[in-house]
Amino acid sequence: MPRAQTPQAYSSLNSSEPALRTMDNSPTLWDILSTTTLSRCWPVLICTAIWSFAICMLNHHTHGKFSIQSTLITVFGTVLGFVISFRTTSSIERYNEGRKLWSQIMLNCRIFARTVWFHVPGESSQAPTGGHAMSDKEKEEDQAKTLIEKKTVVNLLEAYAVAVKHYLRGEDGINYEDLHPLVSFLPSYYSLPAIIPPANLPELHRRPTNASTHSRRSHDVPASPGPGTRAAGTHIPLSTIPEVPLRTANGSSTTDSTVCDEESILPSAMPPKNSWQAAFPFSFFLWIWTTIKKDARKAVGVDGAGRDFRSNENNVPLEISLFLSSYISALQVRKIVEAPTINLLYTSLNQLVDALTGLERILTTPIPVSYSSHLWMVTLVYCSALPFQLWSTLAWFSVPASVIASFIFFGFVVAGEEIENPFGYDRNDLNMDHFVQNIIRKELRALTATPTPDPADWAFSPRNNFLGTLSGGTAQNETPTDWLRKGKAEILKALQGAGSKEMV
Where do the record's region annotations for Disordered lie (predicted)? Predict the structure, then answer.
């Protein structure tokens, strides 16, 4: 619907920095092919072609002595098709559930932010100390404090979504360009263990240098309250805030809030480089080896990189939810918000944590290794037996037929393996960077770009034809102010006439 005029604050958002794009708008042929299973299972297809050609050569020189009946194709092919279908269906269910949970995060970020920005009063309603009325300067300072507080809470909602994205990718800590500015000021009250182990990335092992760091302590702020300081319970005086450990960029705690330099800040996305290990079946063997190695090292509390993983993991999104909960608790103490609003905030926060728990469940409940390995071995045996059974009917065409059949079966196996974990950097994974930066971030910033609109401003606009186009006559050209002069009876009469014409 076109608008008569657009606020200037919104136009500035259109020129903001572009969000990170995980895929190009104009993909090349290689980009398209890399999204298919062919880019992952080409080694096994080459091996199948070589194997089929060797069997055909033997049958050609021995007059078909290595040929067998095609009964196994019919019997085992049907069973294998059902098993692979079940494997792929299970992976698709995990993919769809992950997308639903991300929709739940976006929905509740919208609800929480809208409730805070619109329904939390812009100033405290508590009586000032001493019984005297607040001066204009004190009112201005109180409103500024409340505005800063509300905007900070809305920023924490964005930080929550960003932290969930990094957490699901195994990127530990807060040392990322899209997360660190949003949470670096938060004190580290809690040390919550992470369910998802951190990724073994060299970038995560870097530590911020001390060349360009500075500290910010709680006593660096003036201890004496300003002239606008209110009674206890409205805003906590800065002098009473205890010196607690603050979070550093790598997720650890310190009484010095060390601000890391630009070189130690990691990018918002760190996709792995393409290598032969990503191709199937190399990725399958690498996954088995990593799983066995990880289980062996868990007994001594060390991960694959030789680090003590139990002391290096932090559940950053869950910690952020605790700060959001503390804000709701502060609103209850101040008694400036009605109970239904508090209940809505608690419900939205609970839904955010519920989505995080569901995403953790998906990521920490993989398909059992025994099932995946058995499925892969059965598929390999079936495809290896195809040249023996196809020679009697297809002769040399057994080679391309075996390759095509292998591509069909192994393609589904590889597709199920890829979408089983939809939170990584694969081209077919969920575009979490788009969810966070193009949806949540832009919506939250657009929400806080303008003050809360007053219905008295837009409901009585001269352009508002609240009777609609069905009223007819000269009523269409009358403004709400004109109808206000006529009174309630004339408005009800006009509405009744419009309703009667609609029924006719």
Answer: 202-235
CA proximity to 337, closest of 108, 129, 153: 153
Q: Respond yes or no on whether the N-terminal peptide bond of residue 281 is cis (omega within 30° of 0).
A: yes
Report yes or no on 12 lying in a domain: no
pLDDT, residue 201, reads 55
Number of domains in the chain: 2
Nearest partner of 353 among 146, 200, 161, judged by Cα? 161
**Phi/psi at 212 (5° precision):** -130, 50
**Amino acid letter at 251?**
G
Q: How far apart are CA 393 and CA 68, in angstroms?
A: 11
Which contacts qualify for 340-349: CB closer than 8 Å, 24 or more apart? 341/115, 341/119, 341/120, 344/111, 344/115, 345/112, 345/115, 345/116, 348/108, 348/111, 348/112, 348/115, 349/108, 349/112, 349/321, 349/324, 349/325
Burial degree of 224 (CB within 10 A; 0-12, 13-18, 19+): exposed
- For residue 254, list its beta bridge partners: 246
What tens digit of pLDDT does each residue of 104-139 get? 999 999 999 999 999 999 877 655 555 567 788 888
User: 254 in helix, strand or coil?
Assistant: strand
- Out of 225-229, 251-255, 291-295, 319-323, pick the least confident: 225-229
* E strand or H helix at 95: helix 71-119
Distance CA 360, CA 355 (A): 9
| Structural domain contains residue 403 | no
With a pLDDT cut of 90, the percent of the chain lying above it is 30
Q: Is residue 297 part of a domain?
A: yes
Backbone angles phi and psi of 131, in degrees to 5: 80, -5
Q: What distance in Å separates the CA atoms of residue 126 and residue 134, rounded to the nearest whole number?
A: 11
Which amino acid, residue 405?
A
52 part of a folded domain: no
**254 shares its domain with 327:** yes
459 and 443 in one domain? no
Averaged over 55-59, what is the pLDDT? 91
